[in-house]
From TrEMBL:
This is CRISPR type III-B/RAMP module-associated protein Cmr5. The keyword Cytoplasm applies. InterPro entries: AF1862-like_dom_sf, CRISPR-assoc_prot_Cmr5. Its main location: cytoplasm. The lineage of its organism: Archaea, Thermoproteota, Thermoprotei, Sulfolobales, Sulfolobaceae. The keyword Oxidoreductase does not apply. It comes from the Archaea. GO terms for cellular component: cytoplasm. GO terms for biological process: defense response to virus. It is found in: Cytoplasm. It holds the Pfam family Cas_Cmr5. Keywords: Antiviral defense, Cytoplasm.
Length: 171
């Protein structure tokens, strides 16, 4: 999977979700528009920690299950509201999944044994990956370039799908 294929997959899932929810994706679209510039100005780690500071725990697992695991939407109200209103959690999930794919560490939920502590486990994994990147400047540089390219492509795809007079799904 490359920096074009993965954003196309995410764009397709986002379109399916918008149709299912009958809502716009303006929150996710806002994140897609601001992320490339944020990475260029602040760097990858500060950009991702900013997203982390904005996530909504109740949307973390549904976002992973839908965007990464390809499962059906179970709690559509939360996920539909997430992509329309804020988009921080879903954008962080797809970005983090890309990083883990590039690191050849594709485990997400599977890594966590205790279901009650699933959200905390995922956050610990996220912090662990960020520390790994911070401690290896060469790896950070490669991953940052890849995430920037992915983010630029995702921005173009989301703008292409949802550009014009308002977002699809809101009519």
């Amino acid at each position: 999977m490359n920096e074009v294929d993965y954003p196309l997959d995410i764009g397709e899932k986002l379109l399916e979700l918008a149709i299912y929810c009958k809502r716009s994706v303006r929150g996710f679209r806002s994140r897609a528009r601001e992320m490339p510039q944020m990475i260029q100005q602040l760097g990858l780690i500060p950009s991702l920690t900013f997203l982390l500071s904005k996530i909504d725990d109740k949307n973390l697992i549904p976002s992973i299950q839908y965007f990464i695991k390809g499962k059906e939407i179970k709690d559509e109200n939360n996920l539909c509201e997430e992509i329309e209103d804020k988009g921080y959690t879903s954008y962080l999930v797809v970005s983090f999944a890309w990083i883990k794919l590039k690191l050849n560490d594709v485990q997400f939920i599977d890594k966590c044994d205790n279901i009650e502590e699933l959200t905390d486990c995922i956050k610990k994994d996220y912090i662990s990956v960020l520390k790994t990147l911070k401690n290896d400047k060469n790896l950070l540089s490669k991953i940052e370039d890849s995430v920037l390219n992915f983010s630029i492509e995702l921005k173009k795809i989301v703008d292409g799908i949802y550009g014009g007079e308002g977002d699809r799904g809101s009519s």
